[in-house]
Amino acid sequence: MSINNKKESSSCDINAKSCSCSKEENFEIDLKSHWNDAYSKSETKKLGWYETFPEPSLQLIKKCNFNKEASLLNVGVGATTLIDELINIGYKNIIANDLSLTALEIIKNRVGDNKNKVKWIVDDLTKSKILINNEPVDLWHDRAVLHFFNEETEQDAYFKLLNKLVKPEGFVIIAAFNLNGATKCSGLPVYRYDEKMLIEKMGNSFELIESFDFTYQMPSGDLREYIYTLFKRKFLMNKL
Questions:
Q1: Can you tell me the distance from the alpha carbon of 64 to that of 182, in angstroms, rounded to the nearest whole number?
Q2: Cα–Cα distance between 172 and 137 in angstroms, integer?
Q3: 179-205 b/e with 16+ CB inside 10 Å = b?
């Protein structure tokens, strides 16, 4: 997938010590190449979104009271350690999705032989060709993916896919930059959210169980403001 964006040399993440911003005013970026480059050219633990331990996500997953057979879909995983932790807990139906094959290979190498306990899917959430045919899941987990979709058409495609894949009484965790958060990440513009905006996007088929703001400390020491939300799908699904 490619998009056209305008970028200026002064438009990096607020307070960031380093970023991948371009000095050109206009450019076309292929997102798959962008993320493959991000993961291949930088040490994983130094990436601005890397979590040593994904505590907020695990906190919300625990509240869902899943059994170990639950199907847990983590979209836009990057090189997250959440996959490692879900394997360690003993979940048997983990699905890891990202646009970047390079990112998925980093996790595979890190978890070693346990990689066979995970279903790995390279797919674009806004133009899905694989996930769209996946069986419904008990959990849709997204940390720091949704906010990269700035166009309404991208957002609509994202939530249409989410609605198709989440089971009745299934759960959705979305963590995105909140309204006080940075306006760019990895040199790309982001679309920030608050609780009300996410409730509206999720629609009447879902009820909000919990939401909280969370300040994440980047490996550089800089801070990023997130909103974390946990939704539950109502038993009776609306037709799409």
A1: 29
A2: 10
A3: eebbebbbbbebbbbeeeebbebbeeb
Tell me the C-alpha distance between 97 and 77, whole Å. Answer: 6
pLDDT tens, residue by residue, 46-74: 777 888 999 999 999 999 999 999 999 99
Largest Cα–Cα separation, the chain:
51
Question: What is the domain class of 50-233 according to CATH?
Answer: alpha beta
Predicted TM-score (pTM) of the model is 0.85
- 185-211 pLDDT tens trace: 888 899 999 999 999 999 999 999 999
What are the sequence ranges of the domains in the chain? 50-233
